[in-house]
Amino acid sequence: MGSDVDEEDLSPAEMMRLIEEQSAATARRLQPDPLLLYAPWGVAWMVGFGAFFLSYGLDGRPLAPISWQLALSILFGGQLLAGAFLFWTARSGGVQVRGESAQRGMMYGYSWFVGMMSMSLIVSRFAPLLPREQVGLLYASVSLLVVAVLYMAGGAVWREWPMFLIGVWVAVVNAVGAMLGPGWHSLLVSLLVGGGFFVAGIVLRRRG
């Protein structure tokens, strides 16, 4: 037997509804869940910068016996796990993008790697010249500056205003926190950037 519903028997309204449903299903297959895109980074930054906050405190007195080196390791480890999770999600989703979009994505991915590696090398050159409490702030603030610029660039490349505005938000919070000092920077970034990524993922998912 054939299909239960013959396309010739559908009214124009029913045909339009069917097309919209198929278009929505295709979009869900090609576009990852926004919450899965933003939540891993939110966790990484909440935990990583939370460790920095416990290491510094707001008045210069540590709230927990955590060195800035350990806090930095927690932050970088969390970011690596977030990146690995996103890579696994993309691979397991089975989405294959080819042509110009694939080239853009590849170049954008390399931009993250090159940006973070060059940032680490440059900061390590100047870190020995700074007081201990300022070294962690230098690493954290410059790495977030790279993140903010790349998010804004990605939003411009793909014409995605949410992505661009998230980059602006990260840049503003990062700059304000850096001006206030290590403890405040860590607290603001943990709550406003880490938590903000959760909010962005939830809002974009609901808008889906």
Give an account of the 3D structure.
This is Transporter. The chain crosses the membrane at residues 35-54, 66-88, 109-130, 136-154, 161-180, 186-204. Keywords: Membrane, Transmembrane, Transmembrane helix. It comes from Nonomuraea roseola. This protein has 208 residues and is an all-alpha fold. It has one domain. It is 81% helix and 0% strand. The protein is built from seven helices and no strands. It has helices at residues 12-30, 34-56, 68-93, 100-126, 132-158, 161-180, 182-207. Helix 3 packs parallel to helix 5 (132-158), helix 4 packs antiparallel against helix 5 (132-158) and helix 6 (161-180) packs antiparallel against helix 7. The radius of gyration is 21 Å and the shape is elongated. It starts with 11 loop residues before the first helix and ends with a helix. The mean pLDDT is 83.
